Every structure is written in structure tokens, then in C-alpha cells.
């Protein structure tokens, strides 16, 4: 498909976007002479523009059916793109529905789960596969046989601008606000930060701007901790993970970054999510799971940190 236009759809969330890096690179390698466009959402657009996988990045504003003008604008843009093939790595109802926007044609080839897709991911077990294996399987059915582990060596930003005392460790106490059962209690994180500081490691708390007050509560108990919630972009998170001694956090997006950067990583899971389907992947990842996160003890978390870190 040299000299043709290819569209990749990946809207989010953060962990899913990180785990799509291997497929992004595989699509780029398979279509070496093509112009590849990514359709994504605003949080990932600037990062994707700096990545080596895409020639263009479009922002999907998620138009609603109640705003037909916005939907028609997206339809016009998709049709004007003259795409030969679409790789729908989101495989949601929304992204699958975008295939209908090409009607009445010409219709691009389509890899995904949309009705009448030319290259459907037809594995009946797809909903029981980990995200990484599911995407590999989808691309294999579309003719891309090799998907390598993600390579983020192109990210050259350093964490030096934060002036952090070394060594430091990352704590990620936040996550989906509407899923509180995925969060280890803040009191536990406060005790963890205190223990880490006593071992000579600076606790560095990362998260969204909305999680700043939560991080302040941890810092009030562990004053050596640093609160970077709301101060980092995606490239900063990769830089911090590359330079951290280890990372400990809930089942949330930044933990996928830590794992991908080979940072010793401990991820805490409750029954609200299944690590068999969505756990971060990396060479130095430990998963602790209990039905109720309050059942995970501080000593268990510290003991689970992969070896060769500052606390071992």
C-alpha cells in the first residue's frame, strides 16, 4: 500500500493508548510508503504529533448525534482523506460507527469489529484477551504478522526541570473518579510515602490536576513528598518513569507508562478490574490484587517492589 493513505483510530484512554504503541509502530513498518493519519482525542494529540508513527494527527471531538453539523463535518473530513485502509484500534461502538460515515462510498478496507469490515477481528475470544494480545491478533488478521514491544526511546525529555531530590519514586494514588474501588486508601499512600522517605527516597506524586488536593493530603503527612499533580504532560511522565527508582500506584494510565519504561512497577488491583485483561506490561511489573484494596497491606506493597531499586 505504498503511496496510499491509511487511517488509525485510537481515542483513549491513557493506558490503552500506551499499549497501542507496538501496533502503531507495526502499522508504520507495514505501510512504510503510505501517509498515515491518526484520529485521536485532544489529550494525546500533541504527544502523537511528536511520535515517529504518524504523518498527521486529527483530533476527534466526539460529535453527538444531536449536533448533526459536527457529525457531517467529520464525515466530510473522513471522506476527503481518501483512505485505502482504516485500522480501528479503539473497536468501540463509536469508532465502529465511523465506518458508516463513508457511505455510500468509496469504502476503505477496515480492520476492526465494524459490521461488514473487510478485515474483521473475528476471534470469538477477543473480549477475554489482554489488550496487547487482542491488538496483535487483530493486526495478524489484517496481514501484519509482527508486533514488537513498544519503543519509546525517541522521547528525549528529561525530568531535571522538576528539580527533584534523587533518588525518587513515583506514587500514583489517583485514577478514575467514578470508580473509587480502584483506589488504595489515601491513608495507606500517606504511610507508604512516609516509609519511602525514611529509606532515603523522595516520594513524587503524579496525577491529574483534579487530584492535587489528594496529593496535598499525602504531603501533609509525608512532608518530603513532592506533589506534581497537574504539572506534567505525557512526555514528562515518560521522563519521570525513566529516571525513577520505582513506581507504585492504582490501576490507572500512568502505571502503564512506568511499566513501558522498565521502571520497577507495583500495580494495585481490586475486583473492579481484571489484570488478566488490562494489567500494565513490562519487564519489571508486579501486580497485587485483592477484592477490596483496603486488604492490601503496606508491607506487602513494599515487599513487592521488583529488585535492584533503592529500597531493596
Low-confidence stretches: none
What structural class do you assign from the helix and strand content?
Answer: alpha/beta
Whole-number mean pLDDT = 95
Largest sheet: 6 strands, parallel
Helix content: 25-40%
- The domain tally reads 2
Oligomer status: single chain
Distance between the termini: 51 Å
The ordered H/E elements are EHHEHEHEHEEHEHEHEHEHEHEH
CATH class of the largest domain: Alpha Beta
CATH superfamily of the largest domain: Glycogen Phosphorylase B
Cα gyration radius (Å): 21 Å
* 3D shape: elongated
Number of helices: 12
Strand content: 15-25%
Instruction: Give the beta-strand count.
Output: 12
Instruction: Indicate the CATH topology of the largest domain.
Output: Rossmann fold
Shape-level CATH architecture of the largest domain: 3-Layer(aba) Sandwich
Set out the fold topology.
Layout: E1 5-9, H1 14-19, H2 21-30, E2 35-40, H3 42-50, E3 56-59, H4 68-80, E4 83-88, H5 93-97, E5 109-112, E6 119-120, H6 131-141, E7 168-172, H7 186-198, E8 202-205, H8 212-221, E9 226-227, H9 234-243, E10 247-250, H10 253-260, E11 265-269, H11 275-278, E12 285-289, H12 298-304
Helix pairs in contact: 7-8, 9-10
Amino acid at each position: 500500500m505504498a503511496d496510499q493513505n491509511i487511517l488509525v483510530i485510537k481515542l483513549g484512554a491513557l493506558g490503552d493508548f500506551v499499549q497501542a504503541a507496538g501496533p502503531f509502530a507495526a502499522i508504520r513498518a507495514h505501510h512504510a510508503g503510505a501517509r498515515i493519519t491518526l484520529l485521536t482525542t485532544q489529550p494525546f494529540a500533541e504527544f502523537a504529533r511528536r511520535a515517529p508513527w504518524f504523518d498527521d494527527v486529527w483530533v476527534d471531538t466526539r460529535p453527538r448525534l444531536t449536533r448533526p453539523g459536527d457529525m457531517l463535518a467529520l464525515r466530510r473530513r473522513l471522506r476527503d482523506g481518501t483512505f485505502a485502509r482504516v485500522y480501528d484500534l479503539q473497536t468501540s461502538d463509536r469508532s465502529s460507527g465511523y465506518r458508516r460515515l463513508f457511505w455510500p462510498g468509496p469504502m476503505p478496507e477496515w480492520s476492526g469489529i465494524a459490521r461488514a469490515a473487510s478485515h474483521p477481528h473475528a476471534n470469538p475470544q477477543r473480549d477475554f484477551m489482554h489488550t496487547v494480545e487482542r491488538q496483535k491478533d487483530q493486526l495478524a488478521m489484517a496481514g501484519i504478522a509482527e508486533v514488537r514491544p513498544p519503543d519509546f526511546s525517541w522521547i528525549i525529555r528529561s525530568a531535571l526541570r522538576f528539580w527533584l531530590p534523587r533518588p525518587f519514586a513515583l506514587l500514583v494514588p489517583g485514577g478514575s473518579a467514578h470508580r473509587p474501588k480502584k483506589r488504595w486508601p489515601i491513608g495507606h499512600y500517606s504511610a507508604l510515602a512516609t516509609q519511602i522517605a525514611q529509606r532515603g527516597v523522595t516520594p513524587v506524586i503524579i496525577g491529574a490536576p483534579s487530584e492535587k488536593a489528594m496529593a496535598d493530603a499525602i504531603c501533609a503527612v509525608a512532608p518530603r513528598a513532592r506533589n506534581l499533580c497537574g504539572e506534567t504532560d505525557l512526555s514528562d511522565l515518560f521522563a519521570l518513569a525513566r529516571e525513577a527508582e520505582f513506581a507504585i500506584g492504582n490501576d490507572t494510565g500512568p502505571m502503564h507508562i512506568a511499566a513501558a519504561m522498565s521502571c520497577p512497577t507495583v500495580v494495585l488491583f481490586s475486583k473492579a478490574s481484571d489484570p488478566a485483561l488490562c494489567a500494565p506490561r513490562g519487564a519489571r511489573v508486579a501486580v497485587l490484587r485483592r477484592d477490596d484494596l483496603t486488604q492490601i497491606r503496606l508491607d506487602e506493597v513494599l515487599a513487592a517492589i521488583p529488585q535492584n531499586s533503592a529500597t531493596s
